[in-house]
Amino acid sequence: MCGIVGGVGKLNLREYLISGLKKLEYRGYDSAGIAYAEAGEVIVRKVAGRVVSLDAVVPNNIHPSVGIAHTRWATHGQPNSSNAHPHQSNNGLFTIVHNGVIENFRPLTHQLAVRGFHFASETDTEVIANLLERFYTRSGSVLEAIAQTCEAIEGSFACAIIFKDEPNRLYFMKKASPLLIGVCDDASLLASDPAPMVELTDRFIDLDDGDYGFLEVGKVQIFRNGRRIKPRFVARNVDLYKSDLGEYPHYMLKEIEEIPSVIKRLCENYFDEDHFLFNESMLECLRKAKQIHFLACGTSYYASKIGAKYLRPLGKDVLVSIASEWAYDPYDITEEPVFVLLSQSGETADLIRCQKIINDRGGISIAVTNTKGSTIERKATYSCLLYAGLEVAVASTKSYLAQVCFLLMLTGALRGDMMVMADIDRLCESLKDIIARKEEIHSLARHAHKVTDAFFVGRGLDYLASMEGALKLKEVAYVHAESYPGGELKHGPIALITQGTLVVGFVSDPEVASSIRNNFEELSSRGARMVVLSTASLQMPGDSFVTKDVKPYLASSALVMVSQYFAYYMALEKGLPIDKPRNLAKSVTVE
Ligand code: AGP
Predict the structure, then answer these.
(1) Residue 466 lies in a domain
(2) Residue list, ligand 1 pocket, CB within 6 Å
């Protein structure tokens, strides 16, 4: 994973690099580092932990000509300062930051060690710096050294490189990890995503795999396969990358409360008074498809499960697979499914691997992402955006609801059913009511925050929605939470219920309400402490939180919002780092 940022030119580089890293911390926050050229020297500072600690050790009065910075999610080596980036080649000529994984770093390290190179870290990155040195020593050309290094290394990389003898130039190379250039009048920038650059420019250049080159003020040179190529400028709606906390204490809370406006924006983008605005040829493709196959991870996988429920009644065979599993066992029942790739970030490595398999087979894919210009968005046959705005908290909240509503609208478009729009409106009313009553959920969490285990149970859509509730509790509140279909409990898991075990029950589906209530009884009589989330028409005395009625097929999504708040407040009561939970990163760019 990791985030990188770099710049050359006349700007406050310190401010740009440090604030840029803060915006990229969602990509990892195990360690942070910076390197910059000043007065003929390249100075490196790095720390274990967050960017805020780096900020404290970088002098304020620096005036570098070029700089690079990195925030790390550790893959190879512990999250300490010696493994933190930037890394330098043995002779100090090359200083680099890297996002990605070098799969053949062990044999390459060995080959370099035999030639006398030494290594100060356990990372797979140092080998890149030393290969650059070795190839440069032979050819005397930095560009040639970069081209040869790209050839020699296997895996994924986005690198920003300072060459000590050229302090007014910033080199880069990219394969399979995201990297984007931003151009201003008096500076040239690069970063893993547009967020660090959007305050300075709206002129971006997307890089493709295999691209390398350099930036100077007013100059961008990109090479592919040894030949110079013309930069391809792309427009970006910079507002989608801006997000500040405002009055909120945490992004997770802010993003939960943005959900009604996110859904409204989504509707405006895909519906215009009396007709849907989806790409017609994409709809035709879906209409013709015998099979639709969702691929996704984490929250996006759970949203796909709901989408599959919506689409199946259209007579489609709809499969949902976890991307990291399908990537290594890419089965299909029919020969020509239409693949739907759901991803908030559009950069999830497991999904990119699936996409490559689909593209190599000549298959059709529809990317549904929240990130314009992301790899998955760019490489799909059709792409649709969620317009949810930047999601900063590691735990996905607004994206989930946007994904579910998107898939419902898509189903409505395929069915020619505009009533779904009115149903979504009612859902938004219910969500606003939940926001207004969030303190009730806070109080539930306050009473439950000492638990270490929890079960989430439901049936049908409620079960699928409760999976997302359990994931939220795991990732932000560090509670071991498992979701089970109500009917499955007696087949084993009920053995784990003892006095006081927390069970969060979802009841919004009238078809299965009485059977899930029976399951709750069975759990209560064995000592479970029930927190039941229900809807007005299905409520029973003693329920913990009751939402307004909406169409049953959307009601479980309202319960997901309740469980998002529940997880948030549990984490708050426990004093946990809500927006950046341990061991996680927002964008999972390694397999
Ligand atoms: C969500 O809360 C998680 N942090 C995680 O499961 C996430 O949904 C998953 O990594 C998929 O990410 P994507 O939607 O960006 O592909």
Answers:
(1) yes
(2) 297-300, 343-345, 348, 351, 394-396, 475, 588
